[in-house]
Structure formats: C-alpha cells, structure tokens
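pasting for ref
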Amino acid sequence: MRSSEEYKRQIMSDLAQGNVDSLDGMDTTVANEYDNFDDFARRSSREERKSLFGRAFHPDRVSTENMEPELRKAIADIKPKERDDIAREFFKELKKRNLSDRDLEKQLNLSTHHASRMKADDVAKLATYTYHNHPDIFHDVLADQPALVKFLSNPFIGAALGAIAAKWFGHRG
C-alpha cells in the first residue's frame, strides 16, 4: 500500500500531466453527465458517490492526521441541520456494528449522544473515529450526505477531488 505522501505526489503529477486515468480504473461513464458538484450530489446514485468517495477518501491514501483537521473545518462550515443529519447517520450506521451512541459518547468524550445537540467538534470527533476505524461506514455516510465533501479544503484532498472532477467533466473547458 502506498503512503499518503506517495499518493499525493502521484495525484499532483497526474494532474500536472493531464492524466486522470490513474484513479484505479474509475468508471468514465459519469463524465459530462453533471454540471457541477451540487448537480452530481443531487442526481448521482448513492453507489456512484460511494465508489468515487471511497477511492478518494480512505485511510490508506489520506491519513487520519491529514483528514482530521479537514473534517473539523468542514463540519464547522456546514449548516447545523446538515451537521445533525451527518451525526445521525454515523450513529445509525455504527449502531449496526453494535456500537451504541452512549458508548461512543464516553469513548470519544462527546458532549452528548443526541445528534441534534452535538457541537461541531463532537461531530468531527465522530467523523474522524469512523474514518479511521470504519472507513466503509464513512463512505456510506458521505454517499448519503455529500454536502460535507464540498467543505473539504486541504490541497491534498482538493487534488483528489480535482482528479475525480476531471474524470466527471471530461476536460471540458
């Protein structure tokens, strides 16, 4: 498995050369189907989003140390209602793995286990925990709540999304 630094260098190199085919055989049928990210988030299938986000955001590619500050910033920037929805989704999916909201509250030192009362910092802790320990759940939640992706800003993450966007939009100018 490649380190996140090696992956970052590869993405940057690919983007500099206009090469968007190195993203693990990503399906090119989505190219030119969407006008922008909001259109993609609104009209794409859950499986399309899960596949694309799963390739771009995985602890083997983007370390938890790199992802955590981005999640904190992104979650702080989204609307409170969307933040509640994201927390609710994480709890729902983690509960399927026999992780109760009360246990997670204690383990992660959250201020509450009620999604609607959680602060941005609490949701960020929950998202980071899920990203690191249950990346499949993290991808499921991103697929269901793609608004979070819009607020990620780290150049590394931006490069990954740029490569994906280039694939979606097929080098439109």
